[in-house]
């Protein structure tokens, strides 16, 4: 005991501060786990529901875009830590679609809905389908709701963050009201002309060499195939095939056959995502690192409403403004805010998921 010394005041202060910070983080992790487990228990009720022989598990499409001033990896981390555990507990099937640049999600959503409108016109007018032909199923083998359950345009769409929400809404409005004209594909003739172009020689010697090409010998390949079949199996390269000479069918004028009827629209869901960046947000980020339980509770309640499929009609007065508080956190100027442009007749057909109430948030309590 003679060699034992008390630590110095500086050492005691450092150890006390570090111990306090570690204790705060451990306690916050404990609270987050308790809240997350409470939401998981509620979501498991959906996973335990029985399915019919022709029923498919519920499926949604989750859209991610880079938050303002940051990369797409922040959106991936946010979804994995706050939303994915609730979806997994509810056995909710989902596809994650990432938009690397602004407008990618907008274009994808609009094209899916336009394709859905084209399919409706094709079925009404008995037009040939644009997709590859397949063997039709027998009437007794095809469930009545199978087409609806497998159509990507009808899967509920979940937007993470305000910018993603605006892109999804703008894409739905464009896909439901804009022209159905299909962009023409490049013709094989143009591609052939570009590949057959010959660069002119730059010197006289090169020009002389090009006037008389060197003789080449064609190697003879031994084969057991009779000559009568060889001529049929290997056509002359100069002879065009029937596929290249056949005329392509004229494009279908979908706009002339469009009656202006909007097909059923998918249910929309929104989850807040506030990504703090910049020097001024460092104190708030440090505080959030040691006090993350409120965000786990808020986002978990929003994800639970989606997992349990709590749907309601669209509220034009408030639903379009969801996530506007995120723009304040991101410190966006009015010029940087993405505008929302929606047709009124599209709004009347939309539905969305319920937003969590204070009672829903208080349900995730712990002892």
Automatic annotation (TrEMBL):
One of its GO terms (cellular component) is mitochondrial inner membrane. It is found in: Mitochondrion inner membrane. Residues 120-149, 230-251 are annotated as: Disordered. Residues 122-144, 231-247 have a biased composition (Low complexity). InterPro entries: Mt_import_IM_translocase_Tim54. GO terms for biological process: protein transport. It is a single-pass membrane protein. Keywords: Membrane, Mitochondrion, Mitochondrion inner membrane, Protein transport, Translocation, Transmembrane, Transmembrane helix, Transport. Belongs to the TIM54 family. This is Mitochondrial import inner membrane translocase subunit TIM54. It comes from Dimargaris verticillata.
């Amino acid at each position: 005991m003679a060699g034992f010394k008390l630590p110095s005041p500086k050492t005691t202060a450092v150890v006390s501060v570090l111990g306090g910070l570690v204790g705060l983080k451990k306690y916050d992790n404990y609270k987050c786990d308790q809240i997350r487990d409470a939401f998981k228990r509620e979501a498991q009720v959906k996973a335990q529901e029985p399915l019919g022989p022709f029923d498919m598990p519920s499926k949604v499409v989750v859209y991610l875009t880079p938050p303002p001033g940051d990369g797409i990896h922040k959106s991936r981390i946010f979804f994995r830590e706050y939303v994915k555990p609730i979806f997994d507990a509810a056995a909710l099937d989902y596809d994650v679609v990432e938009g690397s640049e602004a407008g990618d999600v907008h274009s994808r959503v609009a094209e899916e809905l336009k394709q859905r409108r084209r399919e409706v016109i094709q079925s009404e007018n008995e037009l040939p389908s644009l997709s590859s032909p397949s063997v039709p199923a027998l009437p007794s083998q095809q469930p009545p709701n199978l087409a609806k359950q497998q159509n990507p345009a009808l899967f509920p769409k979940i937007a993470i963050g305000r910018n993603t929400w605006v892109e999804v809404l703008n894409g739905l409005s464009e896909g439901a009201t804009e022209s159905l004209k299909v962009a023409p594909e490049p013709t094989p003739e143009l591609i052939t002309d570009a590949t057959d172009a010959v660069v002119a020689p730059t010197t006289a010697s090169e020009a002389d060499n090009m006037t008389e090409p060197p003789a080449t010998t064609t190697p003879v390949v031994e084969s057991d195939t009779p000559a009568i079949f060889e001529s049929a199996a290997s056509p002359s390269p100069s002879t065009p095939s029937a596929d290249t000479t056949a005329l392509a069918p004229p494009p279908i004028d979908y706009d002339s056959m469009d009656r202006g009827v909007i097909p059923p629209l998918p249910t929309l869901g929104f989850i807040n995502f506030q990504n703090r960046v910049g020097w001024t947000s460092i104190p708030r980020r440090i505080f959030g690192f040691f006090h993350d339980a409120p965000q786990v509770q808020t986002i978990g309640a929003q994800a639970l409403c989606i997992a349990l499929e709590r749907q309601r009609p669209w509220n034009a007065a408030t639903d379009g403004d969801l996530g506007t508080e995120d723009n304040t956190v991101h410190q966006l100027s009015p010029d940087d805010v993405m505008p929302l442009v929606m047709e009124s007749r599209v709004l009347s057909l939309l539905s969305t998921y319920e937003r969590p109430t204070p009672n829903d948030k208080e349900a995730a309590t712990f002892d």
